[in-house]
Write a structure and sequence with these properties.
This protein is an all-alpha fold. Helices cover about 70% and strands about 0% of the residues. The longest helix has 25 residues. The relative contact order is 0.11.
Length: about 325
């Protein structure tokens, strides 16, 4: 069985493009996707392709280039998204292909459309000049609005594709928490890059509780020095993020047994970024913490082998009883 079996052949180029985007940019995400049952991977690639396309509009394009301001481009993209999700035709550009794959996956798995619009709302919060733009967040509750659309809904989009052993509503809370844990990890890892773009996502009240203000952050970034106050603030925020991971952990056992290994691998590897931050002495303002390839392989290889063996058995014995679930 291949990833595209059962999908309209006319859509195969669209799904292949989304897979290529995931492979090129996803790293940990793509590695975890390879652990999923083959039939579910294409839908996940489509979700990634769309998220990547929107990120490119917000983060890569200049604020006012030949294609127009970012806000206008997001508005145009949302119009195209609504048309595609409504069954309208798409063109042949790369972005059209991504939308075609997304619309197909959304229809096949009955993913609520509101999740995609919430994602676009949060992306507008990153766009200077937008009515909802914010470059600073004072408290965790203030940040929650942004994280719902930028992170929680990613987990919620995934649920219908992954499948659950319970009513899907029971898995919503943990799935949202896992998305938020990933996003908080990103905020810690990317603190220096974000500051260079004049953005501070980590709540300023949380930082101020340890004596960290923007002036101190910029001084540390300029000098390469890790102030003890910053070290304590980051240790606190890492502890908070690990607590969010613990909230999400029970939700993995609510998923279809065949996908648990993939999601646990993603959770372990993403949480490892926090350990890398600690091991670097919290030098997030001057370098980006990365999980080594050796570590990624050590965590994923045994599960990849098990997933591959299960897939091989399914291809060789399609009429026999279903393969045993991928175990952890």
């Amino acid at each position: 069985m291949g990833e595209l079996d059962g999908i309209d052949p006319a859509l195969h180029p669209a799904y292949r493009l989304c897979r290529a985007l995931n492979a090129e940019h996803g790293k940990t995400y793509f590695l975890a996707t390879r652990l999923l049952p083959v039939a579910r991977r294409a839908g996940v690639h489509a979700l990634y392709g769309f998220a990547r396309m929107v990120d490119d509009v917000v983060d890569v394009a200049a604020a006012d280039d030949d294609d127009g301001p970012i806000g206008s481009r997001l508005d145009a993209l949302e119009d195209r998204l609504r048309a595609a999700l409504g069954g309208g035709p798409t063109g042949h550009s790369e972005s059209d292909l991504v939308l075609a794959a997304l619309a197909d996956a959304t229809a096949r798995y009955d993913i609520p459309h509101e999740y995609f619009y919430a994602f676009l709302h949060s992306m507008r919060m990153d766009v200077p000049g937008s009515p909802v733009f914010r470059s600073r967040y004072r408290t965790m509750p203030e940040l929650a609005e942004y994280m719902y659309g930028s992170a929680a809904v990613i987990g919620l989009q995934m649920l219908p594709i992954l499948g659950t052993t319970c009513a899907i509503d029971e898995a919503v809370g943990p799935a949202s928490a896992l998305g938020e844990a990933f996003q908080l990890t990103n905020f810690i890892r990317d603190m220096g890059e974000d500051l260079g773009r004049d953005r501070i996502y980590l709540p300023t009240d949380e930082l101020a509780a340890f004596g960290v203000d923007e002036e101190l952050l910029r001084n540390c970034r300029a000098t390469g020095r890790v102030d003890p106050r910053l070290r304590r603030a980051l240790a606190h925020l890492i502890a908070h993020t690990r607590a969010v991971y613990r909230t999400a952990e029970p939700g993995i056992d609510l998923l279809d047994p065949a996908v648990r290994s993939a999601m646990r691998t993603a959770s372990v590897l993403y949480a490892d970024i926090l350990r890398e931050v600690e091991d670097s002495d919290y030098r997030v303002l001057e370098r980006r913490a990365r999980v080594s390839r050796r570590r990624r392989v050590a965590v994923a290889a045994p599960r990849l082998a098990t997933a591959g063996w299960s897939s091989l058995r399914a291809r060789r014995h399609p009429a026999s009883r279903p393969p045993l679930p991928v175990t952890d």
